[in-house]
Amino acid sequence: VRVRSHGWLGWSARTMCGRARFSATSETVMRRARVRDSSRWQDKELYHPRFNVQPGYWTPVVLQQNGERCLHTMKWGLVPHFSKKHERPDHFRMFNARSETIHERSSFRHLLKSKRCVVMLDGFYEWQKLAGKKQPYHVYKVTEDGEEPQPLFCAALYDTWEDEQGYKLYTFTILTTRSNAQLSWLHDRMPLILPDNEAVDAWLGCAASTYPAKSQGDREAGACQEKGDWPQSRKPLGPDEIAYLLSPYGGDDLKWHKVNPEVGKIVFEGEECIKEYNPPPPKRESRDITQMFKAASLPPS
Question: Is 126 a known active-site residue?
């Protein structure tokens, strides 16, 4: 559970991950998710691309239904199904879940079996605290020149809550793990990034139990079956078979740079959020020339 603070950032800068970028167009989201038909995107109209997103915003997540991938726009920040119906949902309480303890906590344990999903971040923001000051960084995946930027496929869990009027609200939480060697200087936690599409399929519960595959033949045989016709010798991964996925991202394609501290304000929006930022040099203390002469003329104490 991450508890919101009341500082100017709107939440504690040490939480992970509490600000992210979902700036891809709807068409790009569908292509990345490998969803060809917009009819397989529930509540598509609720998604609006933004460079600065916090818990409580509508964002698309990838699901697996009837052997096929689909999209569903949900609110970031899990509201458990057992939450009181008359209370206002607090999306800041559970916008992250520690992957090391999801098997233990009642809020997450029951979701592992059938409510796993994947969130496609275009990037996320993290704050470094130095000498009492907080400098935000934008973390994202680097691509070769000319290639389409790739998202960070992050493991997540979702749930459904219903209010007193019967309105159903779908929400999700992003899993986190310990930071890898690349980002440990910035924070001790990082999102649980899935390394490739095979890992995405595994997390969604539609990959062969022998993943990771040892050969090309195994990879083809163990790929997610779009029509749901599983080989007799294979079955979808269960909660106890996904432990190997809960480890820090090992790729070397993450990149980061400083961004404007204004990104901490949710009203700060647009490409300026991810523009590389060069902090102004510290101001040198200046003294009026008359004060200098007065100081020089004072008798020694």
Answer: yes
Please list the rounded mean pLDDT of every run of 10 residues in the chain (301 residues): 33 61 97 96 98 97 92 97 91 93 88 93 94 92 79 96 95 96 94 94 68 37 35 50 86 94 96 93 63 58 51
Residue pointed to by tokens 């060069």? 278
Q: Omega of the bond prior to 117 within 30 degrees of 0, cis? A: no
Number of C-alpha atoms within 13 angstroms, CB side, residue 133?
A: 6
Helix (H) or strand (E) holding 189: strand 189-191
CA distance 37 to 57: 24
Q: Which two tokens stand for residue 54?
A: 């916090």
Q: For CA atoms 130, 9, 20, 169, give the dihedral sign.
A: positive
101-104 long-range contacts (CB < 8 A, ≥24 apart) are 102/157, 102/175, 103/239
For residue 273, indicate whether it is catalytic: no
How many Å apart are CA 235 and CA 101, to the nearest integer?
A: 25
pTM, 2 dp: 0.80
How many Å separate Cα 156 from the centre of its chain? Answer: 8
Neighbouring C-beta atoms of residue 19, cutoff 10 Å: 25
User: Is residue 203 within 8 Å of residue 245, measured between CB atoms?
Assistant: yes
3-class DSSP string for 93-119 = CCCEEEHHHCCCCHHHHCCCCCCEEEE
User: Can you name the residues that pair with 74 across neighbouring β-strands?
Assistant: 59
Q: How many other CB atoms are found less than 10 A from the CB of residue 182?
A: 18
The residue from 126, 154, 224, 273 that is catalytic is: 126
What is d(CA 19, CA 262) in angstroms, rounded to the nearest whole number? Answer: 12
- Residues 196, 194: Cα–Cα separation, whole Å: 6
